[in-house]
Amino acid sequence: MLPSIRYLSQSSLQDLQLTIHDVTACIEHLLFAKTQQKAWNAPKAVITPPDDRYMMATLAAADDPPFLAVKALVLNPDNPRYGLESINALVTLLDSRNGLPLAIIDGNWITAVRTAGLSVVAAKRLAQPDASIAAFIGCGVQAHSHLRALAEIFPLKQINVFGRSAASRDKFCRSAEKMGLLVVATQTAQEAIQDADLIVTSVTLSPKLIPFLDARWLKPGAFVTMTDLAAPWLAESMPALDQIIVDDLEQEASMPKPLVDPELVRGDLTDLVIGSATGRQSTDERIAFVFRGLALGDLAVAGLAYQRACEQLQGMVIES
Predict the structure, then answer these.
(1) Measured between alpha carbons, how far is 15 from 50 in angstroms, rounded to an integer?
(2) Which residues are registered as beta bridge partners of 128?
(3) DSSP structure string for the chain
């Protein structure tokens, strides 16, 4: 008999109440499995039509748990004009042994949670453990997911916020205030960054984006996670960083344009987790995690969500 297919909407996924500790443990498990040839991910495939849309697909599979995940995503800067999110995505989950379909999962939720999860995997090894001030450049979905995740790991007391959209900025600030954090909305990006221990940049990608962030603004000991391909960062300022880690060196090698100068890169997330790349070496190091998005992260979160949903009887079951 063919298995049933479970549809997991954003609301059913939120009801699972996965913690960042659950998410990072699954990501780290698959990164270890990758080194043992028990998990695999392909470089992302990208299409960039001339109208500023960005289309992307990721593929990853593992033997334990035996899942294969494919995510398809479209970024359209015009979407907000029609009341839609700028990015929309869908994840399909298959049994990696026989290829039978298992689940259809909201890709926006997966993207938000796995991106924050990847950042936290890096931050646990590269940020100061007593980091208390975080800066957010960009106030969209990724800012919200990163704030929730980082607040579970670090003793945050204050956040500095800079965003170009007043509505998004104010919504984000209200969310942070409800968490009991001191919120400082700054007039410039430099004001937000210069005294922060942790920095998250999630600026919406666009061919028209002009870099405006300078790594020389970072104070000694700062850690920054660049979820936006480092696009808003001035390339000439990147040598000010003492370490740069990317998510996947193999993926980077296949891309026509590198995220940063390859000479500045010390390793990738797998290297960091297995210990072949060094973590923070001193309290003064300025360190960045620069990433495109790792397909193994999508697989880890999608697989975890599917397993929990089956246990908790969440989602809508489509019988074969």
Answers:
(1) 39
(2) none
(3) -PPPEEEE-HHHHHHT---HHHHHHHHHHHHHHHHTTSEEEEEEEEE--TTS-EEEEEEEEESSS-EEEEEEEEE-TTGGGGT--SEEEEEEEEETTT--EEEEEEHHHHHHHHHHHHHHHHHHHHS-TT--EEEEE--SHHHHHHHHHHHHHS---EEEEE-S-HHHHHHHHHHHHHTT-EEEE-SSHHHHHTT-SEEEE-PPP-TT----B-GGGSPTT-EEEETTTTTTB-GGGGGG-SEEEES-HHHHHHSSS-SS-GGGEEEEHHHHHHTSS----STT--EEEE-S--HHHHHHHHHHHHHHHHHHT-SEEE--
- The pLDDT value given to residue 92: 98
Pairing mode, if any, of strands 265-268 and 243-246?
parallel
**Quick one: fold of 126-293?**
Rossmann fold (3.40.50)
Q: What is the pLDDT of residues 161-183, one digit of tens each?
A: 999 889 999 999 999 999 999 99
CATH 3.30.1780.10 fits 5-110+296-318, yes or no: yes
Calculate Rg over the CA atoms of the chain: 19
Q: What is the pLDDT of residues 211-246, one digit of tens each?
A: 999 999 999 999 999 999 999 999 999 999 999 999
The residues with which 55 forms a beta bridge, in sequence order, are 47, 74
The tokens describing 260, both together, are 């940063």
pLDDT digits (tens, 9 = 90+) for 45-55: 999 999 989 99
Going from N- to C-terminal start, the domains of the chain cover: 5-110+296-318, 126-293
Residue 205 has pLDDT above 90, yes or no: no
Q: Same CATH fold, 126-293 and 5-110+296-318?
A: no
pLDDT band, residue 1 (cuts 50/70/90): low
CA distance 150 to 160: 14
**Per-residue pLDDT averaged across 253-269, rounded?**
93
- pTM here? 0.95
Q: What pLDDT was estimated at residue 165?
A: 87
